[in-house]
Amino acid sequence: MALLSGGLDSAVTAAVARSRGFEVYALTLRYGQRHEIEVAAAARLAPKLGVVRHEVIDLDLRALTRSALTADIAVPTGRDVDHLGQDIPATYVPARNTVFLSLALAWAETVGAYDIFLGVNALDYSGYPDCRPEYLEQFERLANLATKAGVEGTGRFTIHAPFLQSTKAEIVRVGVQLGVDLAATTSCYQPDDSGAACGECDSCLLRRKAFIEAGVPDPTRYR
Questions:
Q1: Helices 168-177 and 202-214, axial angle in degrees (round to 10)
Q2: What was the pLDDT predicted at 198?
Q3: What is the mean pLDDT of the chain?
């Protein structure tokens, strides 16, 4: 089971799961994000990644949350890339990973999958609290406490975050090694209608830095 957002990290994570011999069920959430182009990117990536089944679920978080990604709030731009992660930015969506992982857990238990992959990263990231190792440890504990499979002992859930302690440059290099179509991924928080990236939001800055440090040509289309 893999959460597939359409972004760089999640696409390479799904490829890692495949490389480890897992059959991958991919889950994408259309949650009211302003950058819905990522949902289309996930749909393009899924067959390229060889997933067994890809589901796109509609769950509009705009009714319950306020974030620069779900409401009329300015997306931070032009920040110092070397100081990202020191605070929690306006692009944080309350409990997003908890909601996403809970849905992945429900589907995983239903199909008898006990390994859940997600592309969170605690080194080169924007400061989200639900991208930290201690959060993932606690969610894994919850998964095994709150499911029939966990209680009856028919399966033990494991949360896999293969790039939790990696730099984004390392993620880019692994993506190249595994043949991931990195040009098909999207990272920008505010792309234009054609999908061209702004080049100034936190996600764009981290992505650009990653390709430079990896020594890999950046396939991103910037406006």
A1: 60
A2: 95
A3: 94
Q: In sequence order, what are the residues at sequence separation of 6 or more whose Cβ sits closer than 8 angstroms to the Cβ of residue 109? A: 147, 148, 149, 157
Domain 2-214, CATH homologous superfamily name and number:
HUPs (3.40.50.620)
Q: Per-domain residue ranges for the chain? A: 2-214
Tokens of 73: 């709030």
Over the chain (223 residues), what is each successive 10-residue block's mean pLDDT? 97 98 98 91 97 97 93 89 77 95 98 96 77 94 97 95 94 98 96 93 94 97 91
What does the DSSP assignment read for the chain?
-EE--SSHHHHHHHHHHHHTTPPPEEEEEE-S-S-THHHHHHHHHHHHHT-SEEEEEE--GGGT---TTTSS-PPPBS--GGGTTSS--TT--TTHHHHHHHHHHHHHHHHT--EEE----SSSS---GGGSHHHHHHHHHHHHHSSHHHHHTS---EEE-TTTT--HHHHHHHHHHTT--GGG----SS--TT--B-S-BHHHHHHHHHHHHHT------B-
pLDDT value for 25: 98
Predicted TM-score (pTM) of the model is 0.94
